[in-house]
Protein 1
Amino acid sequence: MKKVLVVSAAMGEGHNATGRALEDAVKRLWPEATVGWLDALDVMGAGVGPLFRWIYVSNVQRTPWLYEFFYRSLWRHRWFATASKRFVGVWCGWRLARKIRTFEPDLVLSTYPLGSAGLDWLRRHHRLDAPTGAWVSDFAPHPFWVYGDLDLNLVMHEQAVPPALKCVPEAKVIVSAPPVRAAFAPGDRMTARQRLGLPPDAFIALVSCGSLGFGDVEDAAKALLKAHPDVVPVVVTGRNEALRRRLQPLADAEPRLHVLGWTDEMPAYTVAADAVVTNAGGATGLEALACGRPVLMHRPIAAHGRANAELMAEAGLAIVCETDRELGDAVRELIASPERWKAMAEAATRHCDGTGRLEDGLLALSKLTPAAREGSAAR
């Protein structure tokens, strides 16, 4: 019986969502497989998870300049990126070692950069023989995502391969199908709208900024309401109850606005939408692409959010809206020019069809046994 270990982290929901998609694919491939999970932040020590989550949210919301400075430093100074990754690798790696030794996995799948750093450290110190891959769930990889000693680094689009190799030129990088659950797939908009009670003829703009619901969500909702009388914004606030409460008076005053908290119906809402409005380009963006929906990146968050937005725009999969006015303009353009909407939707569908299945990446990884690795290195 195959044993598969997922190394993730509860940093919002994105990394765990990627892990769940991989777990589903594992079960489709090997129904009898045992799948174990490790949270890299929990492994790194008591209190590390809450501390790192606080640092991340604080940087994005209060000190984006600091987050941007750290992100740009990783790119500008290779020594800084290498030192940072080695430091985290030692910290996480030696703590992972005992847990991995106990589980004895046949495959290791990482969805979180700090976990990948620990796995890379283990591989370099000959303490990890199982084939190990890192799924880069950001559209644009950054230096902390990519590792030369892991068997595979899996990115989400051909456009992401050059920046991944720029991070680590010797890394083994391939393109994966978007790591989203099978429920996120093209479907019939009218059927989804009927089931969810949404108007059939409106332009549905799904606003989703991750489980933490941070960023300029309220401004996005107001801009969408002003953009066009046919626009119906559906705002998913995730676990951010304070945001939901702030938006409720606006929804009470404007019947077109739908405000949701945490919901298990995200696949249906994504299929029902004409466009998905987000600000980071991680799991939400990948889910939109898997459903063949254009992405509007509204005021992208600092660092990785801005990088994701730029690369998705280059690939023809997103429109970057730096201001509320640009968001309104983008929506009006999609309403007035159905051919633009169709081109973006088809580009998303083509990409997802062209990258095959998540199972393909898992199969490729499973064939990379220690003997196969040594043979490849010898050649």
Protein 2
Amino acid sequence: MKKVVFFAVLLISCAMSAQKVKVLSGNLKNLKGISEYNLTFDYKDIKVDKFKTEEEFLADKMKKREEKGTDEDFRKSWFADREDRYEPKFIESFNKRFENGEIRVGKELSNAKYTMNVKTVWISPGFNVGVVRRDAYVTGIVTVFETANPSNVLVSIEYEKTHGEGAMGFDFNSGHRISEGYAKMAKELAQGIKKNTK
């Protein structure tokens, strides 16, 4: 009986923390016929976990690492992970949903007629200290607009609390956990495009 109650609570908690997808404007159907997107990322004014600002989060984490002398290393890797981990993971996850390359995204496609912007709103990096761990979560807004006319927005979608985990629980690096959240966001987006542009 205890096992049944445990699994029921587990399922409820998973459902409560599940990703929410909300169309803010436009429609995914507007993307029909588009084969490529120039991809841009925006991290301005992101919130991190329970902190009011990203800098407040960094100050807290760096203070805990001062004695070991790894405080500046943490700060550098926190920002480097954007280009080194999050963005490549998003691109890889999105593009592999289209095995024949019928639709693709890339940061180098500056001549593409349409741009896809991924605006990071909130990150919960989670943690993994071996005996106890918590997954990462990412909230982001994906907006597709005409490159030459940014005011022409085809669709804008918020992906709230996209779940990030990886390496079967051996995800000790926060950048790895967070990057999996971007991969999940890209997967959901690609599946949404497939479903709505048949």
Protein 3
Amino acid sequence: MTTLKEGDKAPAFTAKDQNGKEVSLADYKGKNVILYFYPKDDTPGCTAESCDFRDNYQSLLSKGFEVIGVSTDDEKSHKKFETKYSLPFTLIADNELKIVETYGVWVEKNMYGKKYMGTARTTFIIDAEGVITHVISKVDTKASSQQVLDLVK
């Protein structure tokens, strides 16, 4: 597993979004990107995090950021999640686990003594040249956008 860090080039990817459209990181060249990985659509923590990005989306756009969410859920699940919570940004379906593995966020987890593989909630801030400027591994789901803004002042 790769551990990406600040200063690394963000790995390229192409996958389908909630509308079945192919999206590549290259589509965002020249823009700052908040790439956030979350475990599962429509669960309490993931909903809080996504809605926080939604509620602060215009502020993030005004500061030059695009927001992209990634989970291993499929396009249909993402579309339902987007519609239910009026999410204004792209949600990438990584059900083949290519992006989560490339970014090093597909990890062994432990809940109630049961070990399983899952997505580690992580946010990568990527600059206009495609370089990772910050990695947030301890995400505050209720204030995720503020965590980003505090880092990029």
